[in-house]
Amino acid sequence: MPVEKTRTTHILLAVFHGIPRFVRKGMFLSIFFLFYHIGTKSRLITLHNLMRSFPEKDTKEIIKITKGVYRHFAIVAAEFFDLPYITKDNIHEWVDVEGVENFQAGIAKGKGMLSIVAHFGNWELMTIAGPMYLKPMYIVYRPLDNPVIDNVVEYVRTMQGNDMIPKGGSGKRIMELLGENNLIGILSDQNVAHYEGVFVDFFGRTACTGVGLAVMAMRSGAPVLPAFMARQKSGKYKFIIKPTIEAVCTDNYENDLVVNTQRFTKIIEEVIREYPDQYFWFHQRWKTKPWQKKKE
């Protein structure tokens, strides 16, 4: 990162970190609840997504979860400025870890490892905790629209030894890294255009989902590791590392893409159901419709 960008990033992080955490959280909570009241579009998207995903819940409960979503991401935003100051000596104050043995068993196979990562809980904290509890990873990413924020996020994500792989044309590089027994993280829970993904069930509705994770798992034979950072009632996080999954590979490639993508998506849905207020419901996850593909 160029010197000028690094200096700006350091200043930004230091200024916000210098604000006492309880004050910083109060500031972000106030800002996010202001967004809740005046940001009609985002609020309606969140309410609609939750109502469609949890039809068994009444309106009062849906509104409660919606407010919880805003509260959760306000806290995540406030805590972001603490991430550069987390070390091996104080990580235990932030995180309890569960399932390290699942990572160890997977990486021991020597085929590298792919990780299911979602916009859930505090996924940025995983970029700090992951290298400490597991090993540094390569993160497949799309640059953020705001270059200042993008620089700050990239700096924090890589400060513990992780590296970034720009999304698009990264398949060959990923295969090379897996061949060297590396860990690759791919966010796999966002809407994509119909020509970029396949339609799978997500909370009872067809959601167009990227196939990158399934393609890499099928080509490499690398085990797939679901990993999530869920906030607990105590305020600490639980780093949940689930058992690895082996990709299904038959003589029907197109069907295998759907089957594997559905399996990965189901795991994301399961953890969201356990912590419904910790998912990025602001996103139009079901925006792409099946008829768009049929139209061609």
Short summary of the structure?
With 296 residues, the chain is of the alpha/beta class. The chain has 11 helices and 9 strands. The protein has one domain.
The percentage helix is 40-55%
General form: globular
Strand-residue proportion: 15-25%
Q: Count of DSSP helices?
A: 11
Number of strands: 9
The largest sheet is: 7 strands, mixed
Calculate Rg over CA atoms.
Answer: 19 Å
Order of helices and strands: HHHHEHEHEHEHEEEHEEHH
Low-confidence stretches: none
Distance between the termini: 43 Å
The count of domains is 1
Widest β-sheet, arrangement of strands: 1-9-8-2-5-3-4
Structural class: alpha/beta
Mean pLDDT across all amino acids: 94
Commentary on this structure:
With 296 residues, this protein is of the alpha/beta class. The chain has 11 helices and 9 strands. The strands form 2 sheets. The protein has a 7-stranded mixed β-sheet, with helices on both faces. Strands 6-7 form a two-stranded antiparallel sheet. A hairpin with a 2-residue loop joins strand 6 and strand 7. The radius of gyration is 19 Å and the shape is globular. The model has no long low-confidence stretch (mean pLDDT 94).
